[in-house]
Amino acid sequence: MTREWLLTDAPQTRRQARLGALYQGWLTFRANRLAVLGLVILVLLLLIAAFAPWISPQNPFAQDLADRLKPPSAQHWLGTDALGRDILSRLIHGSRVTLFIVGTVALIAPVIGLFIGTVAGFAGGWVDQVLMRVTDIFLAFPKLILALAFVAALGPSIANAVLALAVTSWPAYARLARAETLTIRNADYIAAARLQGAGPLRLLIGHIWPLCVSSLIVRVALDMAGIILSAAGLGFLGLGAQPPTPEWGAMISDGRTYILDFWWVAAMPGMAIFVVSLAFNFLGDGLRDVLDPKGGRE
Amino acid sequence: MTLLSVRDLRVSFPTRSGIFEAVRGVSFDLGRERLGVVGESGSGKSMTGRAILGLVRPPGRVTAQRLELEGQSILNLPEPQMRRLRGARISMVMQDPKFSLNPVMTVGRQIMESYRLHGKGDPRAKALEMLAAVQIRDPQRVFDAYPHEVSGGMGQRIMIAMMLAPDPDILIADEPTSALDVSVRNEVLHILDRLVRERGMGLIFISHDLNLVAQFCDRVLIMYAGRVVEELPAADLTRARHPYTQGLLNSLPRLDRPVDRLAVLQRQSSWRED
Amino acid sequence: MLRVENLNVWFGFPPDRVDAVQSVSFQVPQGQSYGLVGESGSGKSTILRAITGLIDTWSGDIRVADQAVAGRKRSRAFHKAVQMVFQDPYASLHPRHSVDRVLSETLHLQGMHDIDRRIAQLLDAVGLGSGFRFRYPHQLSGGQRQRVAIARALAAEPRLLLLDEPTSALDVSVQAEILNLLADLRRERGLTYVMVSHDLSVVAHMCDRLAVMRQGRIVEEMDAASLRAGRAQSEYARELLTASASYDRGWSGA
Questions:
Q1: How far is CA A39 from CA A43, A219, A287, A289, in A?
Q2: Would residue A7 count as lying in a domain?
Q3: Fewest CB within 10 angstroms: A67, A180, A255, C199, which?
């Protein structure tokens, strides 16, 4: 598989065409240095989460009150918290919780949004009216407040936090998907498919979804930072993961009492949230170059 | 007298597979005349016009041995100077007025704006005068209208009025009539023709339509793959020698000469080189 | 083959209702090629869209092969018999679907078997060859895209092909290739064409008869020979002829 074989404008097989399209995308993505950096960070995060028990230097739950609130040192690289637990180990284990929350939200919310938005845009008429009014109702509440209300009603836990975040973030995707659908719906290629007798379900799934999905993916990657922050916010307020589960937002919350004298307790998880959010933003930017045909490439 | 002198103009864009040259060594002189630039899509005709106006955006690169407006080099001028030049001395009319007029500003204000940047005297009177000059019957009404309230042909006339208000030396018209119906097209062309002639401007008329250019211009450049393959007086177009020009002429269906099959242009790679 | 009787098409509701086509009647016998010419907004493309059911706000009588059609729904048999080629080949192919996907989906929808062999045949028929099978639209030129669009229209083996300005977005040399291809296909397959165009010389070249339209009405019907000879009855058709010809005069007589 040489470069020429992949980049040819005249692929000879379905496989060559697919791989070629992927390689083109990768080349575009690679041209964006920051996006590659974002990808590297996220891959590292995935590896860290996967191998957390093996790479974390100490037990994240082991308390050592004699060693509490120690600054970063050779023994505790990022210091210890109020109960003498190793912050680095807690961050490493916390990455699992964070990844679980954002990963699940990123799977649920856009799918709901895609489904509701494209159906509303494609069907039009009263279906559109009903679905979009429901969307408007959800959009009318501030996101975090709505999530708070859900968690408060359902009881604090990671699963409920995920549910609350997913339920509050789908409307934006539904709006986006509907707007895309409205422009695609009247395109000539849709008319041409209709003339071949294609039914609405086929048009929706085979023709409209592939075009909406790419802009949704970009949007999700860019929203990811916000989702992490919301998850951390819920954790901070004690409505997400429950102690002693190491969750980044909850860790910041624990550290806030000591923030002036023992800054590292809150700052270390804060840094982790910052780095991961930034990585997602870079990644989203690179994905936009690849997936968004309106991005101004020739 | 030579208004614009172009020697070995080149426009290149970096691509994944190396450098793509959209214009490859175009040379011509423009006097107070109507010069047609004809070619198919991808021939580099529009890019030539954009390069003269300094509208090639990076990473595109423009080079030339010479690009002079009345003896003064305008090659890769800094943007502020170029902006002063555009409109005042070289203007451009684009294909579709829908995309070149500001939708939230009345027609009159737009003409006054373009005039105020470069001209002297009462802009309002001048704008009305220009609207009358492009044969708009009720200039006062059109003056207060928004672009969406006028038809395509009217929009193109407004564009011409706007571009000619500051009395430029050179007008570059890029497919100014291809979005218009035939009847409107002829009117717009007549107006353009009269104004250019009366004001002694140089006109570069970029088009894909050989017949139109032959009728409308004095001299024609035929471009293929970024190069000028043939230059000849418009009246002699039927006696064109280059096989590409002949091929283009023959591939057109014609009302006065029915054929069973249209002649198909056989492109030759030698046309890309000298 | 096609018979249109007293067709009216409108958009919107009163008081904003626009009557795009008003009491238009014409018929096209089997194997003929019929042209609809007129300026933009004359309603010529709207007629095609009403026939195919892409617009459902119409009244009148449309019959294809003596079968009446109604409203928006079209039968399977209709889709097999009538196909359309659109004006802009850059807008009529799905940007993410390869040629292979477009043609195989079409063949599948039309209930065809032996899809691999048929795709090869279709690509040969439109002069592309199987080398083009796995390309995406962005890897094709305008002319090649229009060939793919024609292949898609031919997949169902239709008898009536509606051509909506099929070459107006293309360069003249490519236009000649596509017009020749369409003429060959019509001869080989005994197709019936209805062609919409604003270019009188293209219509004169392709069609046997034509209708001149203005503001939603047919102003005049004539045959290609009258068009070439400039024998128009109505004033508007004469005007249109002169306007189209006026920039030919300089050199066509030379």
A1: 6, 16, 10, 14
A2: no
A3: A67
Contact C39 B182 (CB under 8 A): yes
Least confident among A15-19, A237-241, B40-44, C118-122: A237-241
Q: How many beta-carbon contacts under 8 Å exist across A and C? A: 75
The 10s digit of each residue's pLDDT in A185-223 is 989 999 999 999 888 999 999 999 999 988 898 888 888
Q: Is residue A13 part of a domain?
A: no
Half-sphere exposure of residue C58: CA atoms within 13 angstroms, side-chain side: 32
C6: CB partners within 8 A, 6+ apart: C23, C24, C25, C59, C60, C61
- Return the CATH number of C32-49+70-246, one of 3.40.50.300, 3.30.450.20, 3.40.190.10, 3.20.20.80: 3.40.50.300
Residues C184/B262, Cβ–Cβ less than 8 Å: no
- Whether ipTM exceeds 0.90: no
Instruction: Give the domain ranges of chain C.
Output: 32-49+70-246
C227 CB neighbours in chain B (<8 A) are 255
Residue B264 per-residue DSSP state: P
Whether residue B103 is predicted with pLDDT greater than 70 in this model: the reply is yes
With an 8 Å Cβ cutoff, are C173 and B40 in contact?
yes
- How many Å apart are CA A100 and CA A49, to the nearest integer? 10
How many Cβ atoms from other residues are within 10 Å of residue C86's Cβ? Answer: 25
Range of the domain at A106: 19-47+88-291
